[in-house]
Amino acid sequence: GGMVTKSGKVLHEKVLIRSGNLDKLPISSQKQLIDYGVRIVIDVRNEWENEYYPNVFQQSDTVAYYNLPLIGDALSNDEAFYAKTHAYVELHELYAMYLDDCQAQIGAIVSHFAESDGTAIVHCHAGKDRTGIIIGLILALVGVTDEDIARDYAETRRHIQYLVDEWRVYEESKGNDMAQFERNNACAPETMLATLKHVRQTYGDVRMYLQACGVSEDAIVQIKVKFLS
Questions:
Q1: DSSP states along 145-214
Q2: What pLDDT score does 199 carry?
Q3: How far is the C-alpha of 112 from the C-alpha of 220, rounded, in Å?
Q4: What's the order of all strands across the beta sheet hosting 64-67?
Q5: pTM exceeding the 0.85 threshold for the entire prediction
Q6: Taking the CB of the first residue and of the last residue of the chain, which one, N or C, has fewer CB atoms within 10 A?
Q7: In this structure, how many other beta carbons lie within 10 angstroms of the beta carbon of residue 119?
């Protein structure tokens, strides 16, 4: 909430929350989110992640929970997809692959958000890559500038610094490419700017891209109503 669109309208608050994993959220924090207005959680992690690190709202009587993987176990285990998505250099190249190859999944995620009542949470593990793509698309759809979307994306780094520190120790212990690691976790605004540029160059604009993903015109209108009515 509070972001300003290109036309000067201000997005309503309590519509959408971007988050990392919720498997360790204590009861007091769960109550805080419910009191805030959260009524739907869209978990875009793969099925195995949900199995091993179940979302605390999975059995909630108050919050509707959906596991809608942006990638999914089946595609992640596909040898060709795995090889392609491990051969990138810049992070926006990976995001572009997700945008091109996961359209049905992205369409389902955005459509569920459109149909939801109350505040929605979209989350993956860190709230950066998969979640960042979804939030970027939604904000662009309602008219937020690319620069403001990229700035919001870049805010991720300070919130996940503790995770990056843990990951760095692991990557160093495995002798992995640390320069690539730092690029992957920089949360650079340029990554989101290049991602949105790919959408427009390849599909025309974000609206046309989401329509190609199966998001209906009614759902697109509903999203705009949530933020701007």
A1: -HHHHHHHHHTHHHHSHHHHHHHHHHHHHTT--HHHHHHHTS--HHHHHHHHHHHHHHHSSHHHHHHHTT
A2: 98
A3: 11
A4: 16-19, 119-123, 38-43, 64-67
A5: yes
A6: C
A7: 21
